[in-house]
Amino acid sequence: MRQRRAPISIAPPVERAFLIAVDTGKDAGWPAVDSLEELASLARTAGAEIVGAEWQQRRHADPDTYIGAGKARELLAAKVETGFTLLIADDELSPTQQRGLEEILEVKVMDRSRLILDIFAMHARTHEGRLQVELAQLEYQLPRLTRLWTHLSRTGGGIGTRGPGESQLETDRRLIRDRIALMKARVDQVRRSRGTGARARAVGGVPTVAIVGYTNAGKSTLLNSLVGSTEVHAEDRLFATLDPTSRRLKLPSGAHAVLTDTVGFIHKLPHQLVNAFRATLEEVERADLLLEVIDASDPHWAEHRATVQEVLEELRVDEKPRLAVANKCDRPNAAALIEGAIKVAAATGEGVPELRVELEVLLQRQGVAVDLELPYGVVGEVEALRAKTGIQVAYEDSALRVTGFAPAEVAKALHALKRRAIGRVL
């Protein structure tokens, strides 16, 4: 009788990570010890095991080793004690700082930006998401390039590719720049495609609402609760949802809006991600209203709101109409009051009906007031517009009476119907 062998595991070994941070006092609202806690959550999300952490106060980060050569040598004892195989810094390291730490500790070294990029790569599911993550990774890697792209030299072989005096590193840099140019062209194509869809929604008079907020604030759960669906992936971990998702929301009056869930923001968000995901974040720029989701149960909710505000300012949409939502208010440690925010518990549905009402009120305020008499001959076109908006149509003896607030494009269409009707009479 043949004996079955147990399957051989091919899973990579779990990285044993040690975390380091430098507190220069520049970020008073976000001390290093709290930032390290978030870095630990990021590392666990990426699959690492945290075996230790240290932070130090310095006037500024050391230009050669981030924490100073003396402190770096002290970490050799922690390496022996904990057996860490990966060192993660809480700030973005320069190539010099990364090399300096690697030479002293002889372990892999990465920074917060690289870690976030790795998590994004892990969670990108759509073609669009993978494109944007790859572009961000390439832009991050270019100044840190050390013979990582030699395998691509085969794809560009032949006459004209072996210039005299060109080193392998220069060749690799040229190859990665070519790849960046290709990725940017593809991301621009995504931007144009999204723009076409957005224009179609605008012409149809459907208002759009972009959900923004800190990562893991419950944005996807709130979207599911608002539209009465469980289709959008929602999970209690950082960056569980990466790819943007749009769903149709029926408002209390029967009108509709489009809800778009966007990528979560985070403290020290790598600038490469903001640039690469600009095609996705343009959904925020085009939205009629921003729905800002706040995790009321997180003790750092105020700092998280400040981070969200910084990113919105970078996108130049901080002046856009905004409705704040304090999510997870059913948890015992939730903040009792966040000024100006509607309290909800997206997971249970508590406060969601009231939120729908408030959303419609704010969207109506963004619309144009209309009060028109139109002939019955255009009743089909008027009813089609009413199905998409909150306008009211009264059937009077001699005409249709259209009143209410409508998006600018719908108001324009209604006035065009009025002019057309007058032209027929004349």
**What's the mean pLDDT score?**
81
Q: What is the CATH third-level topology name of the largest domain?
A: Rossmann fold
State the low-pLDDT regions, or none: 147-151, 153-165
Q: Total strand count, please?
A: 13
Taking the sheet with the most strands, its summary is: 6 strands, mixed
CATH architecture tag of the largest domain: 3-Layer(aba) Sandwich
Rg over CA atoms, rounded to whole Å, is: 27 Å
- What is the succession of H and E elements? EHEHEHEHHHEHEEHHEHEEHEHEEH
CATH class call of the largest domain: Alpha Beta
Number of helices, where a helix is a run of at least 4 consecutive DSSP H or I residues: 13
Termini separation (Å)?
98 Å
- How are the strands of the largest sheet arranged? 6-7-5-8-9-10
The total number of structural domains is 4
Instruction: Find the structural class using helix and strand composition.
Output: alpha/beta
Question: What fraction strand?
Answer: 15-25%
Helix content: 40-55%
Specify the CATH homologous superfamily of the largest domain: P-loop containing nucleotide triphosphate hydrolases
Morphology: elongated
Plain-language structure description:
By secondary structure, this protein is α/β, with parallel strands linked by helices. It has four domains: 16-119, GTPase HflX, N-terminal domain (Rossmann fold, 3-Layer(aba) Sandwich); 124-156 and 165-204; 206-364, P-loop containing nucleotide triphosphate hydrolases (Rossmann fold, 3-Layer(aba) Sandwich), CATH 3.40.50; 367-425. It contains 13 helices and 13 strands. The strands form three sheets. A six-stranded mixed beta sheet has the order 6-7-5-8-9-10, sandwiched between helices. 36% of the residues are buried.
